[in-house]
């Protein structure tokens, strides 16, 4: 049985990064190339030596596919290409290709400049890496080579995120990356057609979560901000330029308008310019509402949210500010933080993940005092709020996705098998599908049935139809059809013998076997023939047996009896090469009669 | 401004309002309709959901940290999701589920099954909820009540018999019967009032029979004075009972409900009567909430027909009620004169796309946090802010 092999790279139980090796039809594909944000040493990158202990990786991997720009899915790519030496094709969507290098560069800066790390990839590495990337469009079929085909589907989640369908020969796999089944304020929901892949690969963490609705998380956000500004406090929201900033701005703007609030709200200049450009470029990736709005006017032309000026930091009274960078590790957001942190009326809302070592990370761990390089310490009395706005699928979402694409098998990676038995049973009950849960670093093998498509010549079909009175094919009662399999180029065709001979340019030769039996059976030859006929008819009930002019015939088998009344009878049994089995059987049968 | 549909605007309005009405609000979209919710440990709930295939599944879910940590720490945690700890399918549809506290087990009464079954919740080795065994008893689909000492009181659905079983040894201690005062035989709903005292509520009349499980004898009874109520609303009504003892596992240790236990009965015609067990001759609060459940349209298990009422674990003068419509109501029941609605949770209706929905069940968690589920597959965890004038 042809197999599909999956190996999630990474040891032990770590779930911080995605990098999955897929082997099928003789091709090896790497799905995502993520970096683990929790480690500071080699453990942050996947263990590529697994693929090939020594020697160039390019010959082992046919292509790399990146699902979206989050660093736990693409963070190790520059390392893989520039430092490990992979030179093969890399595929991702257009927005991912545009945005990934920005995040990679930000991350590189934090790692090298703030944490003083060496042996990290350089800015040039990132640029060189991205030059090797081939961008793909949604629903566009891309042939990586003669046999390997990939297609991207909309995944929601973040701008440019895609689920990938991968096909080699008649086997196919869908890799979901991170996706989301409910639309939100700026992105739509994931969608895929009924592509019926042999295997659907998704994350197990989502399968065991039931997510708090987006609306409730937004409510929390608005509530915290409103309460803070009501008591005259200042709210700082550190954001990534291309993360949730736009969404949160839209949310706040709507609320401010409805509640008629007068408290000033600002965004850092540059935050929206960049974002604006990318959203304009990738407008088709956002949802209907955003598109409609954009058509009317600039998405970031807010009524209540104005550009920030550093001078405002010291303004008295309540205000809300969106500033970069998102982890409070440098720049404007850090500057504002230092000024506002000591006041307990103020608040900082962290909407995203913070790398170890950044001020954001320290603050989220409850640090009450932060020390800076210049011996400056800042007391953190302001309220710290950690909120999650990420749009991920959950238990219900996975079931919905399975329903959409109808895979033959399901695989959930990055989970513990013991913690997934219930889900396995559920999927089995509801869809009658096998659910696999490979451990990190271990290979999981999924067997698939392979179908080989064949052409059948019309002549052959007509003959067959005639023979069986135009009865349609019945999978429960297969019928034998004789033909010749002719392989020309990459197509295979089942043909009638004569046509095949013509095709091959050879003469057809027929082979006929004849055997003679001698029997003692006094009486006229015709009587013997009748006895034989009766015997054959009894034994071969399903076959068409007839007696014509003294010869019994069944398919191409002929039985002729000769001899005079007293003598031994000679029974001549002959048959065509094609009816070898039948002929031998009848011969054997007649032999028994002779005794 | 941004283009919005009017539906969105309505929803947005409700959410903006909710900022002032609720301290916390979490909403979860399930695959199946959740029919029952029970607390299985201080930060975990067990729910029964009706699966598409007709089978019932039991899910053990960790409550989100944002709900379980102290308010002072709430800002530093970001998890607001439910996490599936274990799950499993039951043999037959679950009519009633109770948690065996501290044992990682649940006890269920299944449709058309005799006795009750015990299921193990997941362990370190497996996240499957599996059937462990059963408690033999001749009643079909009995109703159950448990006390802290693993005594289970089972009542038959259409007869007046009941049994007391000691789960520790899985043996029936004794079987008794309550004489019927009506012509029609009808079952009793059990509920423990305190460690040793159980109340058996006559489903048709609301009469309460008190039974001492240690002494194995009935020791009193009382009935609601139904004459005073809505005579115009003629028709059969069903009653259900709840006590403050049911919250024994709750996290609020205040009030030690054991000392002055309260009992509440509610009817499908909206009656709500509260008794203090120290003096059952006079109800503490007699009221009618002004809502009705149409019994005819909810044929089926007992629990789908009667309302769900609960005492607040923090404040016995507050009782919640659901099952009449898509809302959960919280009332002040300190006394008849002061009876009033303290809060109405109308979040479920907002999600049902204009179709009428009904709250299937609810439970109190702590500090005004209530968890409720509706028949549109959503489950809500909400912490309300009581009206200023209570």
UniProtKB/TrEMBL annotation, chain A:
One of its GO terms (cellular component) is cytoplasm. Its cofactor is Zn(2+). GO terms for biological process: RNA 3'-end processing; snRNA processing. Residues 16-210 form the Metallo-beta-lactamase domain. Residues 245-363 form the Beta-Casp domain. It is found in: Cytoplasm; Nucleus. Keywords: Cytoplasm, Hydrolase, Metal-binding, Nucleus, Zinc. Its main location: cytoplasm. InterPro entries: Beta_Casp, INTS11-like_MBL-fold, IntS11_C, MBL, Metallo-B-lactamas, RibonucZ/Hydroxyglut_hydro, RMMBL. One of its GO terms (molecular function) is hydrolase activity. Belongs to the metallo-beta-lactamase superfamily. RNA-metabolizing metallo-beta-lactamase-like family. INTS11 subfamily. This is Integrator complex subunit 11. It comes from Zootermopsis nevadensis (Dampwood termite).
Automatic annotation (TrEMBL), chain B:
It comes from the Eukaryota. One of its GO terms (biological process) is cytoplasmic microtubule organization. One of its GO terms (cellular component) is spindle pole. Signal peptide: none annotated. This is WD repeat-containing protein 73.
């Amino acid at each position: 049985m042809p197999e599909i092999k999956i190996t999630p790279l990474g040891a032990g139980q770590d779930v911080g990064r995605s990098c999955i090796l897929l082997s099928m039809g003789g091709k090896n594909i790497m799905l995502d190339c993520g970096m683990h944000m929790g480690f500071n040493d080699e453990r942050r990158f996947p263990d590529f030596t697994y693929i090939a202990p020594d020697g160039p990786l390019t010959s082992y991997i046919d292509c790399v596919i990146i699902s979206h720009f989050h660093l736990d899915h693409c963070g190790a790519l520059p390392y893989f290409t520039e430092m490990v030496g992979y030179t093969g094709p890399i595929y991702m969507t257009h927005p991912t290709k545009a945005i990934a290098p920005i995040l990679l560069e930000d991350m590189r800066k934090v790692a090298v400049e703030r944490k003083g790390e060496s042996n990290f990839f350089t800015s040039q590495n990132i640029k060189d890496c991205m030059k090797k990337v081939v961008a793909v469009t949604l629903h566009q079929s891309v042939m990586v080579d003669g046999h390997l085909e990939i297609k991207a589907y909309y995944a929601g989640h973040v701008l440019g995120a895609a689920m990938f369908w991968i096909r080699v020969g008649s086997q196919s796999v869908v890799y979901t990356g991170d996706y989301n089944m409910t639309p939100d304020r700026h992105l739509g929901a994931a969608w895929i057609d009924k592509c019926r892949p042999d295997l659907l690969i998704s994350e197990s963490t989502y399968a065991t979560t039931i997510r708090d609705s987006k609306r409730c998380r937004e409510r929390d956000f608005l509530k915290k901000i409103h309460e803070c500004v009501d008591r005259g406090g200042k709210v700082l929201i550190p954001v990534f330029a291309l993360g949730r900033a736009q969404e949160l701005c839209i949310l706040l703007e709507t609320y401010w308008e409805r509640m008629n609030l007068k408290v000033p709200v600002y965004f850092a200049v540059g935050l929206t310019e960049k974002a604006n450009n990318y959203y304009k470029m990738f407008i088709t990736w956002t949802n209907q509402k955003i598109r409609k709005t954009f058509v009317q006017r600039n998405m970031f032309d807010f009524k209540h949210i104005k550009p920030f000026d550093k001078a405002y930091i010291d303004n008295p009274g309540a205000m809300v500010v969106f500033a970069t960078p998102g982890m409070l590790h440098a720049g404007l957001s850090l500057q504002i933080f230092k000024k506002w942190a000591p006041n307990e009326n103020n608040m900082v809302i962290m909407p995203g993940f913070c790398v170890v070592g950044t001020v954001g990370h320290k603050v989220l761990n409850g640090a009450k005092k932060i020390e800076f390089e210049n011996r400056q310490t800042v007391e953190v009395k302001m309220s710290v709020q950690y909120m999650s706005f990420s749009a991920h699928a959950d238990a219900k979402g996975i079931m919905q996705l399975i329903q959409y694409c109808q895979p033959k098998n399901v695989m959930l990676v990055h989970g513990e098998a013991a913690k997934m038995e219930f889900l396995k049973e559920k999927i089995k009950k509801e869809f009658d599908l096998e659910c696999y849960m490979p451990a990190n670093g271990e290979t999981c093998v999924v067997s698939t049935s392979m179908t080989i498509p064949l052409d059948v010549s019309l002549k052959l079909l007509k003959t067959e139809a005639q023979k069986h009175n135009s009865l349609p094919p019945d999978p429960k009662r297969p019928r034998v059809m004789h033909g010749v399999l002719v392989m020309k180029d990459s197509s295979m065709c089942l043909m009638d013998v004569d046509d095949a001979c013509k095709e091959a340019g050879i003469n057809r030769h027929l082979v006929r076997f004849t055997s003679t039996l001698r029997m003692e059976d006094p009486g006229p030859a015709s009587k013997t023939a009748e006895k034989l006929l009766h015997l054959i008819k009894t034994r071969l009930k399903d076959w068409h047996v007839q007696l014509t002019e003294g010869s019994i015939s069944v398919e191409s088998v002929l039985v002729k009896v000769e001899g005079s009344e007293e003598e031994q009878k000679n029974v001549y049994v002959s048959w065509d090469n094609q009816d070898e089995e039948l002929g031998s059987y009848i011969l054997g049968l007649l032999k028994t009669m002779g005794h | 401004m941004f283009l919005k549909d009017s539906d969105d605007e309505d929803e947005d309005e409700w959410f903006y309002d909710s900022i002032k009405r609720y301290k916390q609000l979490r909403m979860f979209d399930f695959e199946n309709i959740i029919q029952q919710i029970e607390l299985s440990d201080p930060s975990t709930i067990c729910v029964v959901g009706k699966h598409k295939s007709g089978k019932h599944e039991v899910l053990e879910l960790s409550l989100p940290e944002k709900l379980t940590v102290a308010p002072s720490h709430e800002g530093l945690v970001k998890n607001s999701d439910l996490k599936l700890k274990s799950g499993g399918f039951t043999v037959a549809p679950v009519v009633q589920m109770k948690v065996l506290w501290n044992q990682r087990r649940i006890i269920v009464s299944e449709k058309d099954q005799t006795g009750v079954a015990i299921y193990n919740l997941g362990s370190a080795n497996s996240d499957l909820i599996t059937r462990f065994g059963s408690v033999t008893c001749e009643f079909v689909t009995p109703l159950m009540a448990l006390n802290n000492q693993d005594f289970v009181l089972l009542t038959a659905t259409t007869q007046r018999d009941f049994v007391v079983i000691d789960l520790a040894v899985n043996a029936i201690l004794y079987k008794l019967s309550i004489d019927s005062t009506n012509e029609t035989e009808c079952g009793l709903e059990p509920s423990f009032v305190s460690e040793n005292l159980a109340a058996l509520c006559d489903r048709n009349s609301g009469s309460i029979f008190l039974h001492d499980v240690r002494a194995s004898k009935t020791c009193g009874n009382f009935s609601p004075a139904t004459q005073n109520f809505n005579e115009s609303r003629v028709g059969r009504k069903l009653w259900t009972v709840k006590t403050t003892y049911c919250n024994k596992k709750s996290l609020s240790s205040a009030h030690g409900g054991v000392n002055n236990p309260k009992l509440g009965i509610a009817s499908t015609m909206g009656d709500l009567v509260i008794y203090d067990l120290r003096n059952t001759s006079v109800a503490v609060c007699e009221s009618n909430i002004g809502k009705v459940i149409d019994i005819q349209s909810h044929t089926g298990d007992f629990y789908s027909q009667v309302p769900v009422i609960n005492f607040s674990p923090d404040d016995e003068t507050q009782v919640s009620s659901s099952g009449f419509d898509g809302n959960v109501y919280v009332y002040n029941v300190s006394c008849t004169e002061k009876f009033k609605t303290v809060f109405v949770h109308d979040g479920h209706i907002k999600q049902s796309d204009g179709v009428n929905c009904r709250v299937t069940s609810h439970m109190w968690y702590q500090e005004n946090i209530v968890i409720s589920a509706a028949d549109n597959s959503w489950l809500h965890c909400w912490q309300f802010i009581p009206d200023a004038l209570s």
